[in-house]
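Hey all, sorry for the wall of text incoming. These are the two entities for the joint prediction.
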Amino acid sequence: MPRVAFTRNLQRHVACPPCTVAGATVRESLDAAFALYPLARGYVLDEHGALRHHMAIFVDGEPVTDRRALSDAVPATAEIFVMQALSGG
Amino acid sequence: MSDQVLISTRKGLFSARRAGRGVWDLDSVAFLGDNVSLVQHDPRDGAWYAALDHGHFGAKLHRSRDRGATWTEIGVPAYPTPPEGHVEKDFLGREIPWRLIRFWALAPGAPSQPGLLWAGTIPGGLFRSEDHGDTWQLVESLWHMPERRKWAGGGAEAPGLHSICVDPRDGNRVAVAISSGGVWITEDLGKTWTAHTKGMRADYAPPELVEAPESQDPHHMVQCPGAPDTYWIQHHNGIFRSTDSAMTWTEITDVKPSAFGFPVVVHPKNPDTAWFVPAIKDERRIPAEGRVVVNRTRDGGRSFETLHRGLPQAWAYDLVYRHALDLDASGERLAFGSTTGSVWISENGGDDWLTLAEHLPPVHAVLFV
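and here's what came out:
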């Protein structure tokens, strides 16, 4: 089952430790994680369910390609990491 | 009189209390490190609301029922999903996202409307809650109004609804002001809206649009609680006043050192008394001659006193945002905060000022509670 981990910076606002969830896509995996941490959803996704502009999701080290529908497939052993998109400065 | 002021800053919500005559001290901070864009007090039930702008994580809203001892995160407005393929652009071709960017106004409803709250946002949506902010509904009549498509961002990247005046005589009459998009009033609790900008002018607009409602860029609008036919607006183009419930507006000219600025407050009982913080307009946006001053009129704008005792009078470049000047319910105590982290308080209507802070984070808003 995929493991979902959220950036440490988010923990300051919402407690959401790493969790193992059932899901074949990024969307399904995140939905399962947000079932555990409902408040975290609005910090990661906007009101339309798309990934917030300055957030990023990596699956086994690769950034997801579908930031809107989050339809990227995830392997059963995937490590899904949700983080802030970093920019220069 | 209020003995406490809340200061919303780029890095937290600070509180200051009066310790004695002319003595105020910072005494606590909440949300330290977080961007607190606005705080509002609901006099009907004593609740406080703090709007946070987390940047990466979006805009959030918190409520306190114990005057800031504890805070609980509550609901936030959600914009509707636009029709498939719909990309909205302002008249300059910039995209207007249907997405909550920032809270820019919070206002409680009338005493006869318990639980009713209004929220103004960037990119221009007005939202209403009937359950003390737990859930929010978009005021669709305003959002889907064709004229709304002519609103545009000014200093911000998208239009922002920053002023909400709930008429103390009738909570169904609500006036809102948008930067940039004019003044719109509902008489029926948000079902229908009409423009109320007659008499305003926007010199910065193309000639044929100088008087168009959507061209008007009110920076802040207030209504006198004790004489609610009177409204004041600090507009991009200058100062405007209405004494007929916003049916018509009169420009106040010949204001020194400048008629430009962002905030305005009006006396709670005397509609002819209002305060402004003038600045050099447009490209500069700094105090004139490096002097921080407050302008006060007590005769409906016929004349202004430029108040400066206790304020820095040289090498000062403090800009004061639209929500960063407040007046307490007595009309005697004023506070304002600046982009460079200074906060000043007056206990005598602005005649004399004391420095509360000089090194806070940039101040977005101040509020007596």
